[in-house]
Design a protein that fits this description.
Blueprint (H helix, E strand, L loop, with lengths): L7 E6 L1 H6 E11 L3 H8 L3 E2 L4 E5 L2 E5 L2 E2 L14 E4 L2 H14 L2 E10 L2 E11 L2 H20 L1
Length: 149
């Protein structure tokens, strides 16, 4: 799972997002973190369960990304909303696509880029049950071919 190209080191990946959504566009965003949170990310204590991105008042916010920091840091909520660092033009484009086309913004991956924590977010469209079954069928066929060879 470690991906080391262009200075990127993969910390965690949202595998369920690729199963549940068609990813139309990917984008890299910075994330505002405190000291204990960046330590927890470097220790790979990140979980994507039910995480999503919203755009409120011209700001992009990441909700429910579970970053488990040490308990010695006092009262700390591991799933509080965190601000994403994007340019205004990028936020405007994303909000237009979400509002007009009914798409969703979801976090796909947490990476370290030159010691800075980044979140790869994706503009996504939900898959139907039929699409999910087709994807599983193709994956199974590829696995069988690989085992035969």
């Amino acid at each position: 799972m470690k991906q080391e190209h262009q200075g990127l080191q993969s910390i965690a990946m949202n595998k369920k997002a690729f199963h549940d959504y068609h990813i139309l566009q990917k984008m890299e965003a910075g994330i505002v973190l405190s000291g204990p949170e960046i330590k927890a990310i470097r220790a790979r204590r990140v979980n994507f369960v039910d995480s999503y991105v919203t755009i409120e008042e011209g700001q992009a916010w990441l909700h429910n990304l579970h970053i488990q920091a040490d308990v010695s840091y006092g009262t700390y909520s591991p799933t509080h909303k965190r601000k994403l660092l994007l340019h205004k033009k990028e936020i405007h484009k994303l909000s237009q696509k979400v509002f007009h086309k009914g798409l969703t913004i979801i976090p796909l991956q947490v990476v370290l880029k030159n010691q800075w924590a980044k979140v790869i977010i994706g503009l996504a469209q939900g898959k139907t049950k039929y699409d999910k079954r087709q994807a599983l069928k193709k994956k199974e066929e590829r696995r069988e071919v690989r085992n035969i060879l």
